[in-house]
TrEMBL record:
SUPFAM superfamilies registered for this protein in UniProt: Dihydrofolate reductase-like
Originating organism: Nonomuraea spiralis
InterPro entries to which the protein is assigned, alphabetical: DHFR-like_dom_sf, RibDG_C, Riboflavin_Biosynth_HTPR
Protein name according to UniProt: Dihydrofolate reductase family protein
PANTHER family: 2,5-DIAMINO-6-RIBOSYLAMINO-4(3H)-PYRIMIDINONE 5'-PHOSPHATE REDUCTASE, DIHYDROFOLATE REDUCTASE FAMILY PROTEIN (AFU_ORTHOLOGUE AFUA_8G06820)
Amino acid sequence: MRKLVYYVGISIDGYIAGPGGEWDFYPVSDALAAYINGEMSEAVPTHVRQQVGLDAPNRRFDTLVMGRGTYEPALEAGITSPYAHLRQYVVSSTIGSIDAPGVELVKEDPLGLVRRLKQEDGLDIWLCGGGKLAASVLPEIDELIVKAYPVVAGTGIAAFDGAFQPTTFTLTGTRTFEGGVVLMTYTR
């Protein structure tokens, strides 16, 4: 069965973005960029893949689930299909419609969506963000891949923004990059 993997970057204090959705304050070293381009290339947006000459086949993910706040920056840049190399689902009750090939709007029941996707054949499913969506599908998250950046944000969008529901995961791997970024992998 496919796994739902929440691959996300966070600040030391647990925020995936600033209060306005900012994420550009996270330092990305050359070594971290090489890791992302090499081992997590599906997580590189299609237009960036083209700019850096990245033409790697999907090895880990073939499907992406994201919230409105994750999708909107692409729209603001005129990009309607930010991850065209993946099947994309945008979970939002406030977006009216999406007219982009390969992008499906899901207005309700993200948990049902994830459960259905996990039953299909294919590679794993990347939970791209945001915090409210992550909290709503927490019962189905099989793996966390967390890039912890050596930054305190102070406030912003929490990695999980929902009800109190303590959920235990097991640390299965760590890797440290220059500049102090620590990559931690947890499994359920």
